[in-house]
Amino acid sequence: MSRRYDSRTTIFSPEGRLYQVEYALEAIAHAGTTLAILSPKEGIVLLAERKIISKLLESSSNSEKIYKINDQTIVSVAGLTADAEILIDRMRNDCQQYLKIYNKLPNTMQVVNKVCDFKQGYTQFGGLRPFGVSFLFAGYDSLNGFQLYSSNPSGNYSGWLATSIGENSSSVQTLLKQELNANSTESHNDITLDDALKIALKVLSKTSDNTHLSADKLELASLSLQSNTNKPTIKLYTPKEIDNLLNLHDLSKKEEE
Amino acid sequence: MDIVLGIRLKDATLIATSKAFTRGISILKDSDDKTLNLNKKNVIAITGESGDTINFAEYIKGNVQLKGLREGHEMESDEIASFVRHELARSLRSRSPYQVNLLVAGVNDKEEGFLSMIDYIGTRCDLPYAAHGYAAFYTMSLLDHHYREDISLDDGLKLLKLCEEELNKRMPMDFKGLNVKIVDKEGIKVIDF
Q: Do the beta carbons of residue B117 and residue B132 sit within 8 Å?
């Protein structure tokens, strides 16, 4: 019965559901996990796990989960990478266009809002497939400081202190909740960026289907403020730096040996 | 021969425009207002082709208001000046460009005065004091001489008075006095001058 309502994104099923949008959400539930933790004072950490690893794939050089949008925004992706590239291209373009007109980068909220409006359009108009992509946005702007948002194919978005999308995202979120409560007795406000980094790695090591974490399966990035200039700065970690961090926090392969 | 003058102070900006509305050799009105308040802390003063001025000013105001509404906070002076420059540069390359020159005056988020001079070719310059057209010939020397980085509101108004006297003496036409506005952190006020 439901077949009749499957093929078009623009038509409600009798139960009032949009199946294509739900299928898109399902596609994301199978994508590599990505999580983010906000340290309201110091910055944001994005951590992502790559899904398919072949020994023959030369993957160390290119990024497929974490992308820079502009000097103060990074995103990580869960879902169809090819779809994501389209949206990322658009976001980068929109930001530069905005910069050209207003001589200022758009606030994080504006970037998120714009791309989500675009995504929403594909759930409503013209028999097209929705974008099978969820994003985590890590952004900084002078108006609202550090902000973390997540978005999904329906075009909805929401702000978070810490969240996750992709495979096992609900168990990651449960763990994040636990870790963050245990870590800061006062409030989330006091979490340092180093704490956030540590918790991110720890949580992913527990929830990952892989028995151990290693640098070639991970992508890590952080957004923080430069201490001398107070300008936002983005750090994309190299595989070597990730390895060092894993060793530092005792999360590398050795437990398995 | 319209007069538009602006003086930037530490925490406010003064803007003065002539009250005469002229067409050819006639003065049609002696209470014209060449300024338009864009939002709480920003105002533009505009001269040029008479239809273009109002049309362009209201177009800018509409966009500034819309952006403020959409994003939940008012546009800042620097953003407005950039936007205005962009619109003029775009218009210049169209079939019928706007022929307007303007000053953007306001206070920014740090509550400092802001003054930007933009002409119809899309030249933008942020300045401590500025004037468009003939008025610039007669007032620049006065402004150069008397302006100080930390000039007070009273001294700013005195300086404006000097400019007015000079203009009255040298301009070939009667410009019917000046309309003066002060923009500070409280908002935009029209003052008796």
A: yes
